[in-house]
Amino acid sequence: MNRVKIVYLDDELVNLQSFLAAFRRKYHVFTTHDQQEAIRIIKEEKPEIIITDQRMPLVTGVEFLYMAEQLLPESVKILTSAYSDISAIIDAVNKGHIYNYIKKPWDINDVSLILENAVKYYQANRTIRDQLIKLEKTNEELNRFVYSASHDLRSPITTIKGILQMAREDVSDPISLQYFNMIDESIARLDNFIRSIVQYYQNGKDVFDFQIIDFKKFIESILRELSFEIEQFNVAIHINVISNAVFVTDTFRLRIILGNLISNAIKFRKKNDKNPTIEIDVFTDKNEAKIIIKDNGQGIMKEYQDKVFNMFFRVMPEISGNGIGLYLVKEAVEKLDGTVELNSEYQEGTTISLNLPNKYYLLEN
């Protein structure tokens, strides 16, 4: 194993000699009284530990450590001085490049302990840096996967849907049409699952797109995306928006929240109900938006209500879904520093209440 490298800068030769004699067997020690020479050593040898005296002829130890920080930020910096120069110590600490301070005349045992701890500190930081590099690599791979999921995987699904529609037009046999419907439902489940994976990943990133929200237009855009289901099941949707202030939030997460909640309200309507209804009420002020989504659908039994926001939990396995929707809602609400509450009566309907803080102040800044 390579020995840890230490460069020690001091204008007093006796200090350099005693330091070298004490630690040359344990560490690879470089000593110099010249600041330019010390800079050369740092560039060429890349020492793990850099030590300098505060009172130097050309620049102070604090100024030298600042230069060393620019050259080798990962190294551990230590300042020494024979003076009780507290202001210099505070200056060095505030600039963020000093690990420890050694007061002269120093005790060999004390310095030895400081160096041992400095080595551990350096190694711990190196481990963290290595892990960060691995995390960045993993994040890049996830980015590529999400791109693949949202483009390479969904593109064939769109093609299959088109071919399936053409096949329906050329076939009148009831059994064949039934098979086509089963295929269509399976494709829809796969497409929804891929969408959920993409949303889950993107929601986890600390990236926000804060914009002014026109709730009526925003909700109507979501309803257009769900227009096929709304028309197919004759769902009546009533929107009531009362706005008392400009409201700002993250558009991507708001779409996750409202899109999943409205989709669920449609999906879990009562069987054979000819008049499924969804009421969406929005109240905004300078502090928050209160959103209430109420349906007259199947409702949720009491024993399941504390589990519906868990990932992959499905109240009714026979109904198509992936068990991610409400989990994504909860995660997106928490990212926006909001709250979500569910109230439901089985066979009566479900009410979801949301409180989202107004982020208007972010646009003001």
From TrEMBL:
Heme found in the keyword field: no
Domain Histidine kinase: 148-360
GO MF entry, a single one: phosphorelay sensor kinase activity
PROSITE patterns: HIS_KIN, RESPONSE_REGULATORY
TM region(s), chain numbering: none
All copies of domain Response regulatory, residue ranges: 5-119
EC numbers on record: 2.7.13.3
Domain of life (superkingdom): Bacteria
Keywords: ATP-binding, Kinase, Nucleotide-binding, Phosphoprotein, Transferase, Two-component regulatory system
Pfam families for the chain: HATPase_c, HisKA, Response_reg
GO biological process: osmosensory signaling via phosphorelay pathway
Catalysis: reaction(s): ATP + protein L-histidine = ADP + protein N-phospho-L-histidine
4-aspartylphosphate sites (modified residues): D53
Protein's name in the database: histidine kinase
Organism whose genome encodes this protein: Schleiferia thermophila
